[in-house]
Amino acid sequence: MSEVDLNSDLGESFGPYKMGDDEAMLGLITSANVACGFHGGDPVVMHRTAARALEGSIDLGAHPGFNDLWGFGRRKIVGDSAADIEKMLIYQIAALQGMARAVGHRVTHVKLHGALATLAFDDRDLSEALVRAMRALDRDLILVSMPNNETERAARRGDIRVACEVFADRLYGDNGLTLPRSEPGAVIHDPAEAAALALRMVDEQAIRTVGGRKVGMPVHTICVHGDNPHGMIIAAAVRAALEGAGIRVRPISELDI
Length: 257
Description:
With 257 residues, the protein is α/β, with parallel strands linked by helices. The protein has helices at 22-25, 43-55, 82-103, 114-121, 124-137, 150-157, 191-204, 231-244, and strands spanning 3-10, 31-35, 59-63, 107-110, 142-145, 162-167, 206-208, 214-216, 221-223, 248-249. Helix 1 links the parallel strand 1 and strand 2 (31-35). Helix 7 (191-204) packs across helix 8 (231-244).
């Protein structure tokens, strides 16, 4: 591919608690996935991030997760039905749509956060709930997701466009998913390593697992996590490497998906 999106999960600060350097990241990325108040974020942060994204011509995406501020949305919450989670997703996506409208921007995509995303990859009912929520609010919304799982398949069945995502700052297990953060080396902190990985994934249109397996997939968007302490430096290195290789970095909504 001669073009790709560079995204980051942002807007995760809330109240007096600061997470990452959103201002710096917004100067480097082309799409922002904004926390919607459940795992992080608050109305003030959401509004500010939406306004800043508009100023930078950056695509704005909803990043909904479990209602779990204490665990940053990375803990599995069992007991909620898929129908209940569908309402929680509608609530979060609609909240960001309201903030976007207030500043003159629009929400272009949705990307599940943390444990909710991981569960949905293997759960058809949960993935279908996500698709119903997206279709109820805006059928033009794009789903950002790793491919080859129940979430992508549900989106395809529901006629939702999918931007296939890879991670520049994570390693992959042999199941094709990112390694759990608890495993040594799962998170990449070296900007040069992340940049080289991003280039290889775009060039090969594939990921490589820690076991050496090559898994082919279209690479539409590359994520650098905003909560990574080295996120800004990594994003700068990745963007410089992509553009240095003649790859155009563009927002998700401008890609041919």
